[in-house]
């Protein structure tokens, strides 16, 4: 497991994310621009990848650090975009990613780490030590 690298575009990062949701048609130039933007925010965005023996990305996840006014200017870690290639599921890669992201959140000083998931995936996150504490709400904006 390691941090995301620019070369992960060619390593199949977007294909792994497609297991999770719609990704879109992102060319290498757009990937590099977003990668550079994220890299400049190194203390906010932590994206990890798991690669197979041929350096192909087979799993990924991120923790985004939110800075709050509450809890004495506390920090909250938001776990996002946990995805494992279909042919690699069941090997505890998701668990390892969640544990590593939790470790990062702990080390940067987050007072809690939260995530949103579907009810289908709730059991997995319970096994990772998370518990249901609320209800997610969303308002999607149509991008033209």
Write up this protein.
The chain has 144 residues and is an alpha+beta fold. The protein has five helices and five strands; from the N terminus they run E-H-H-E-E-H-E-H-E-H. The protein has helices at 13-17, 28-39, 70-73, 93-108, 122-127; strands at 2-3, 45-51, 57-67, 75-84, 110-115. Strands 1-2-3-4-5 form a five-stranded mixed beta sheet. A hairpin with a 5-residue loop joins strand 2 and strand 3. The N and C termini lie far apart (36 Å).
- Gross morphology is globular
Instruction: Enumerate the spans where pLDDT stays under 50 for 5 or more consecutive residues.
Output: none
Query: Into which percent range does the helicity of residues fall?
Result: 25-40%
SS-based class: alpha+beta
Short description, anyone?
With 144 residues, the chain is α+β, with helices and mostly antiparallel strands. The protein has helices spanning 13-17, 28-39, 70-73, 93-108, 122-127, and strands at residues 2-3, 45-51, 57-67, 75-84, 110-115.
Provide the descriptors you would attach to this structure in a database record:
144 residues; 30% helix
In terms of topology, how is this protein built?
Elements: E1 2-3, H1 13-17, H2 28-39, E2 45-51, E3 57-67, H3 70-73, E4 75-84, H4 93-108, E5 110-115, H5 122-127
Parallel strand pairs: 4-5
Antiparallel strand pairs: 1-2, 2-3, 3-4
